[in-house]
Amino acid sequence: MSDRRNLSTCFLGVLLAAVAGCDEPPASADQDVVPPEVPTTESQVSEAALTAPDCRMLTTASVTASGDDGDGSVAANSQDDNLDTRWSGPGKGAFLIMDLGASQTLVGTTVAWHRGNERQNHFVLSTSEDGATFTQAYAADSALNNQAQTYAFSARKARYVRITVNGNTVNDWASIAETRACGEQTVPPASTADSGPVLPRLPYLQSVGPTSAIVVFRSGVSCTPFVRFGEGTLLARTATATVAGWRHAVKLEGLQPGRAYGYSVEACGSVTGLRTFRTASAPGTRRVRFTTMGDFGTGGSAQSKVMAMMNKPEWRGEFLVALGDNAYSSGTEQEFQDRMFKPMGALLREVPVFPSLGNHEYVTNQGQPYLDNFYLPTNNPAKSERYYSFDWGNVHFTALDSNCAIGMASSDRCSAAAQKTWAEQDLAASALPWKVVFFHHPPWSSGEHGSQLTMRRTYGPLFEKYGVDLVLTGHDHNYERSKPMKGDAVAPSGTRGIPYVVVGSGGATLRPFAGSQPSWTALRDNQVYGFMDVVVDGGTLTARLITSTGTVRDTLTVTKSLPAVRTSSQAQKLEPMETVPGPVDDPAHMPESLRVRPPLPPADRLEDVADAPEPPARTEAPESE
Questions:
Q1: 343 burial level (CB within 10 Å; 0-12, 13-18, 19+)
Q2: Which residues pair with 179 in a beta bridge?
Q3: pLDDT at 188 (0 to 100)
Q4: What CA–CA distances, in Å, run from 614 to 88, 413, 441, 452, 556?
């Protein structure tokens, strides 16, 4: 360490920290401390190079900065293709300017942040033709990882790119290992039209997290397909299926949180057109939007109208939470194909679905076709997809199997006690400010089935203890929202309660209410089909019932004060979701269940969606409440 460095560090220490002496001067806020007895030798330098598959990196003619740390972390280090060096500049608003030498078409900027897995940087990207007047192109917070992050913006002509850093979650320094401007694509965008033989099942998205996603589809012949993917329309990366067969689940990894990705499937001569999806936002992201509904899998006209409205740009969520009875009437393989994946194919190609088991799925082998068709998180001790949880931005979601909880599962498939133990641990462990729980059988309902008291008495106390904000259910074919509930009654004035919402209006034939409206019901409706649009924005959750004609039938608002963001927990969350591999086919023989059969008619009649008897001692008629 030079004498100049000792003096400057001591001087800063006196001014900023009022230290008494400088016998052992502290490192500046952005320095890596290397023990003096272990000098860095030439053989120890790794000189890792910058790689950014989602960016056609342009050559920088020259680079300047607002300042540096005075110890060699200069602007030129950001262009030396060595991730072990960096530019570091002090103070909020520190900036780095890349001069490309001439005006070019720019579509983004790639940045590899120094210690990016520890610090979330607050930054603004701006462009300029003359180096004097800059126009903002992008503003965000960096993701918490060490990978190069590409930030795409609308195409524009510019010679200069400025990166302004307004501090980070650790200190007020700007620190960049490598950065490049991204030029216009040199290849045409992928086609949006499908070509070749039509896939028996078009791609759908599963277990989409901050850094990974699964693309699931089926082919007409046995092969080993692959998926091209990348940010925007530049599909520069490839992921290949691990085994040959007819049922395919290809995992995309190395993604960035809260970003739009394009993908195209190439399978056995079939090529699907470009489709896009959005990765889960990182914990700490204040805004989350999703849709939810249950009792929809009929393949009929009402379901079709709800799907058409949900797929409109103004109502499309980042993901769909499905509340059970996804495939009437028995949850068979063909019913999933004809009554869920075909009518919902256009939506599910771009919007991931996180489902829960309904009682109709349990009719066939206690939900085995459901488990074969979905690739869900396996983050419970049993590694079971029957119940699971995931995070999206500032919201923690917990999915339960209410069939298991009320005694409809055999012990070898699902233990009610084990699910309850896991649910309590899961809710207790989440530090996110919002918690949403979803399952099929409603603890509060005045519909045909009434309230499911086993679910209420078993899980209601846990929901209240661990601060659940909203409970979403289906089962009864209507819409009903409770007032904030606590225990077996409406929460007293001035105390916190939980709203329970039945959204059983997704497409199955609506049913009459069993009696008059109870005093605990805020609003109920059995005349309209629809779904809920839920937006969490900072400290406000707004949930609206959107009918199949596009009207807003009901609105729920929940507000709360948000705690401070905990960056250490954010870094731990950004991991690929763990999922089971799913069914593996013999590549030489098509499974019998996948053979083409005449399409099923819609399940639009009351008898098509009738329910099998449930344990009578565990429900209570609505009028007794």
A1: buried
A2: 111
A3: 67
A4: 65, 18, 11, 10, 31
Determine the Cα–Cα distance for residues 363 and 611; give it in Å rounded to an integer.
Answer: 10
The one-character DSSP state at 496 is: -
Domain ranges of the chain: 56-183, 201-279, 282-559
Q: How confident is the model at residue 616 (pLDDT cuts 50, 70, 90)?
A: low
Range list of H helices, 430-566: 453-465
Q: Annotate 523-548 with DSSP letters as a single string.
A: EEESS--EEEEEEEETTEEEEEEEET
Q: What are the tokens at 86? A: 């960096």
Contact 574, 587 (CB under 8 A): no
- The CATH number of the structural domain formed by 201-279 is 2.60.40.10
Please name the residues in contact with 140: beta carbons below 8 A apart, sequence gap of 6 or more.
123, 151
CA distance 449 to 473: 13
Report d(CA 437, CA 420) in Å as an integer: 13
For the domain made up of 56-183, give the CATH fold. Answer: Jelly Rolls (2.60.120)
Residues 6+ apart with CB under 8 A from 607: none
Q: Return the CATH class of domain 282-559.
A: alpha beta
- Predicted structure pTM score: 0.74
The 10s digit of each residue's pLDDT in 362-380 is 999 999 999 999 999 999 9
pLDDT digits (tens, 9 = 90+) for 507-550: 999 999 989 999 999 999 999 999 999 999 999 999 999 999 99
Considering only CA atoms, give the Rg of the chain. Answer: 27
Query: Positive or negative, the Cα torsion across 282, 287, 293, 294?
Result: positive
Q: Which amino acid is at 309?
A: M
**Residues 6+ positions from 489 with CB-CB distance below 8 Å:** 520
SS3 state of residue 268: coil
Query: How does residue 30 score in pLDDT terms, banded at 50, 70 and 90?
Result: low
Contact between 450 and 472 under an 8 Å Cβ cutoff? The reply is: no
**Cβ atoms of 172 and 91 closer than 8 Å:** yes
Give residue 537's identity as a one-letter amino acid code: D
DSSP string, 20-83: S--SSPPPPTTPPP--TTS---GGG---PPP--TT--BPPPSEEEES---SSS--GGGGGSS-T
Q: Where do runs of H (alpha helix) occur along 108-229?
A: none
Length of the chain measured in residues = 625
Closest CA to 442 of 419, 471, 465: 471
The pLDDT score that the predictor gives to residue 567 is 43
Which strand (E) or helix (H) includes residue 500? strand 500-503
Give the list of residues 6+ apart from residue 525 with CB closer than 8 angstroms, or none: 478, 479, 480, 505, 545, 553, 554
Q: By the 8 A CB rule, do 579 and 250 touch? A: no
Cis peptide before 329 (omega within 30 of 0): yes
Residues with Cβ < 8 Å from 93, sequence gap 6 or more? Answer: 66, 164, 165, 166
Strands 237-240 and 226-231 come out as antiparallel
Q: At what angle do helices 453-465 and 416-429 cross, to 10 degrees?
A: 20
- 8 Å CB contact between 197 and 269: yes
- The answer to whether 289 and 242 are in contact (CB under 8 A) is no
pLDDT tens-digit map of 505-516: 999 999 999 899
Residue 423 φ/ψ, nearest 5 degrees: -60, -40
